[in-house]
UniProtKB/TrEMBL annotation:
The keyword Transferase applies. Keywords: Transferase. GO terms for biological process: tRNA wobble position uridine thiolation. This is tRNA(Ile)-lysidine synthetase. The keyword Transferase applies. It comes from the Bacteria. Residues 70-95 form the 2-thiouridine synthetase TtuA-like N-terminal LIM domain. SUPFAM superfamilies: Adenine nucleotide alpha hydrolases-like, MoaD/ThiS. Residues 125-297 form the tRNA(Ile)-lysidine/2-thiocytidine synthase N-terminal domain. InterPro entries: Beta-grasp_dom_sf (IPR012675), Mopterin_synth/thiamin_S_b (IPR016155), Rossmann-like_a/b/a_fold (IPR014729), ThiS/MoaD-like (IPR003749), TilS/TtcA_N (IPR011063), TtuA-like_LIM_N (IPR054306). GO terms for cellular component: cytosolic tRNA wobble base thiouridylase complex. One of its GO terms (molecular function) is tRNA binding.
Length: 415
């Protein structure tokens, strides 16, 4: 049996299990876009498995009512509580809260550098969108705040999941009259994420991450963007930090920060404006703003240790609200000192890749090496066009990167 607690109305039910969250919501006739589902204290998605004995809480995001907490701003019934802030908000003031947190992240991203901003209103921004809640919420926030911002979707070739994700991004852009670049890996570079993983025996996440970082930077350079923004949230960054500390990846730790400046030619700045906001806050923002997004996780994500690290941090957060933020922000306050201690005096010098011209520390960049290996292993794909800027499509509606150079550590394991 799965024990379910539903808020507003507040009731408890026992449902025969095991099942997925999506199956549970169907059984209860609950619209998945209007609720947050929490299992074992963790926000879960529709494809999450619920085992026998699991306790599930279903919270309506837009609720209110006599028993609801009051908005910290206007005292109206609140729709979401955030223990970390010891606050609750009505829909209007929760949206304001998210916008204010993004403004704060943009205006003051680094301790000790009060005048250094992520971006300015003069910059032309490119948001890497996946169809998920974080990247689409980020695009919505930046558009609402008045930034010049377009989107980039990369088709990874993951069957119906990729098709659905692209459709969501295209519909989002069309509804707002925004520009969306689309790059299809198979059409442009001759391989998909699944075929690349098979050819290289690397994890799908490894092939995907390297490919996306390269394409993010290349599209931004080719189309004259100043900044690439990704939807990494507080949970993502804290989990990445934990993983890097557990393995003592000094190079990654030295580069993990919400702003990565361009350090050479053919590079653009990389920023993470959502690093102050949790996964749950971003899901609630999408529901309140009516943003449709892909709820399911990538089907190739199995084995990604980032999920285990998130579970560890969620366990701490349940007993000590705010622990994740203190962990991440405390590190970022000391990031410059840590980076200085990590310097060896022989930092790599960036040059240009002999094949594509993008930044690299060797003769050939990591992306071109990966692509060459894939195409040599999968000869049926070897007729794909050469790497060139002309292979990237762009239109008014035509379709998450940390390092401009594929040979440098990313400081993040995700998107």
């Amino acid at each position: 049996m799965v024990r379910v607690r539903l808020r507003n109305p507040d009731r408890v039910e026992q449902v025969d299990g095991p099942m997925t969250v999506g199956e549970l919501l169907d059984h209860l006739d609950v619209n998945p876009t209007t609720v947050l589902v929490i299992a074992g204290g963790e926000l879960v998605t529709a494809d999450a498995e619920l085992d026998e004995g699991t306790e599930v809480e279903i919270r309506p995001v837009i609720s209110g009512g006599a028993g609801a907490p009051r908005c910290v701003v206007c005292r109206a019934p609140a729709v979401i509580e955030e223990p970390r802030h010891r606050a609750a908000w009505c829909p209007t003031h929760f949206v304001d809260h998210v916008h204010n947190q993004v403004r704060k992240a943009i205006d003051h991203p680094l301790a000790g550098r009060p005048r250094e901003r992520m971006c300015s209103y003069d910059d032309h921004l490119l948001v890497a969108v996946s169809g998920g809640k974080d990247s689409l919420a980020l695009w919505d926030v930046l558009l609402t705040l008045g930034y010049r911002v377009d989107g980039l979707y990369i088709g990874l070739g993951i069957g119906g999941y990729s098709r659905r994700s692209q459709q969501i991004c295209e519909e989002f852009a069309a509804a707002r009259g925004a520009r969306l670049h689309v790059v299809d890996l198979a059409e442009t570079y001759g391989y998909s994420t699944p075929s690349g993983a098979r050819a290289t025996t690397r994890s799908a996440c490894g092939v995907c991450g390297l490919s996306k970082r390269y394409v993010f930077n290349k599209v931004a350079v080719d189309h004259g963007y100043d900044v690439v923004a990704t939807g990494h949230n507080l949970d993502d960054e804290a989990a990445t930090l934990l993983g890097n500390l557990l393995r003592w990846h000094d190079d990654f730790l030295a580069r993990q920060r919400p702003v990565l400046p361009a350090t050479g030619a053919n590079q653009v700045r990389k920023v993470k404006p959502l690093y102050r906001l949790s996964e749950r806050e971003m899901a609630a923002y999408c529901v309140i703003r009516g943003i449709d997004y892909v709820v399911e996780e990538c089907p190739l994500v199995d084995g990604n240790t980032g999920h285990e690290h998130k579970e560890m941090l969620n366990a701490v957060e349940r007993s000590a609200p705010g622990a994740k933020a203190q962990f991440l922000f405390g590190f970022l306050d000391r990031a410059d000192a840590f980076a200085e201690e990590s310097r060896t005096g022989d930092d790599p010098v960036l040059g240009a890749c002999g094949q594509c011209g993008m930044p690299t520390v060797g003769e050939t960049c990591a992306f071109c090496r990966q692509r060459e290996r894939i195409l040599s292993t999968l000869p049926v794909l070897a007729t794909a066009p050469a790497v060139s800027s002309s292979a990237v499509s762009s239109s008014a509606v035509s379709s998450n990167a940390d390092a401009a150079c594929d040979d440098l550590p990313t400081g993040s394991s995700h998107r």
